[in-house]
Every structure is written in structure tokens, then in C-alpha cells.
Amino acid sequence: MKQVVIATKNKGKAKDFEALFTPLGFEVVTMFDVAPNLEIEETGTTFEENAILKAETLASTLGKIVIADDSGLAVDALGGEPGVYSARYAGDHDDGANIVKVIEKLRGVPDSERTARFCCALAIAGPNIETKTVFGTCEGVILHEKQGTNGFGYDPIFFVPSLGCSMAELTPDEKGKISHRGNAIRKLAMELPNILK
Ligand SMILES: O=c1nc[nH]c2c1ncn2[C@H]1C[C@H](O)[C@@H](COP(=O)(O)OP(=O)(O)OP(=O)(O)O)O1
Ligand SMILES: [Mg+2]
């Protein structure tokens, strides 16, 4: 099977990517498989900058074409927070603490003002190609408490109005059809067979 290398150490993302890439005929390989000790500091101020940083760093380490994902949650009532700092909002990669912080900050904010979106920048980089980025979003509303146990990150507090449930109540396949990550990959999909040979 053809392989696609993803510059991530997030197991939840890896699961999302497997659901999205398996139907396209690709096996997903992550940094756990190819560069477990590589640390990439996310110094960018936008999702695109961080995605490019991760993709280009791993691509030059491996000498291979790599895709990276930088993503997060933007809450309107919080002026777009936690945004690019989503993973380190309350504690470093502490999904539980990050969720508590968002819920606390939105205490007293009515449902009509709890709108938010997930954002995903994907970057593809590697030898003999020009680095390219695509961007996908998914609109939702922040819940008052966690609902559902699937997924990762902020999924349990992200209500998807069009489906009437939280992101954490969806299977990876269902999530991929509507998610920011799925929407970003669909923008890249046409070109992938030419790039990833
Ligand atoms: O579909 C999602 N469902 C729920 N939460 C999500 C999603 N997508 C991103 N998020 C949150 C998780 C993390 O708090 C941050 C990503 O941060 P981000 O730096 O891109 O990923 P990461 O550090 O976990 O893994 P890595 O950089 O190795 O890919 O946004
Ligand atoms: Mg990260």
C-alpha cells in the first residue's frame, strides 16, 4: 500500500487521518513510526506557519514528502481564542484542563453567542515540490459540559448543529465527512495521487 507520512505526534489526529486516507488507498505513517525523538517547536503565529514548520522540518529530516496538520478551536465570544494556542491553552496537551478553561471562560454566555469553529491548516512539503497549504473549517457551538467519548481534544464540547450531536459522538468516518480536517484534505485530494507516488 502507498504510504502518506504525517508530521504529528497526536494519536487522535492520526486516527482521523486513517479514516480519511484509507479510502484513498494510503497507509498513514506518523512521527511515532519514523521520528519519535524529533521535537518541533511551534513558533508560528498562524495555523499555516506552524503547519509549514512541521512539514518542512520532518520532510528535510526524512528526505521525503510529508504532510503536517496544525489545527485548533476558535471561539467567537473569546475573540478567536484558544486559536493557535489550543494545545497549550491551560496545560500542555492536557485536553481535560483545556476544556475546563473554555467552559469557565464562557460561563454565563448564552447559546446564541457560543459559536465557534475548528480550523485546520495542512502543509505538504518535501524534495522537489513547492510547499503548499490548504485550510479547512467546521462550524459549531460550544456546549456547557462534555458530551460523548470519541475523538480527542475539544471534540466533547463541540456541538455540530447540522448533525444534532457533539463531535465526540461521531465515529471517525462520520467526523471526517464534516470536519475541518476532512474539509482541508478534500482540497488537497485531487493533487495527492500526483504528489505521493
Ligand atoms: O479535530 C479536532 N477535535 C478536537 N480538538 C482538536 C481537533 N483538531 C485540533 N484540535 C485541538 C487539539 C489540540 O489542543 C489543538 C491542536 O494542536 P496542534 O499543535 O495542531 O496538534 P498537537 O500538538 O496535538 O499534535 P502535533 O502538533 O504533533 O500534530 O487543537
Ligand atoms: Mg502541536
From TrEMBL:
Its EC number is 3.6.1.66. Its cofactor is Mg(2+). It is an enzyme of class 3 (hydrolase). Binds 1 Mg(2+) ion per subunit. The keyword Magnesium applies. It comes from the Bacteria. GO terms for cellular component: cytosol. Pfam families: Ham1p_like. Signal peptide: none annotated. Keywords: Hydrolase, Magnesium, Metal-binding, Nucleotide metabolism, Nucleotide-binding. It catalyses: ITP + H2O = IMP + diphosphate + H(+); dITP + H2O = dIMP + diphosphate + H(+); XTP + H2O = XMP + diphosphate + H(+). Gene3D superfamilies: 3.90.950.10. Homodimer. This is dITP/XTP pyrophosphatase. It comes from Lysinibacillus composti.
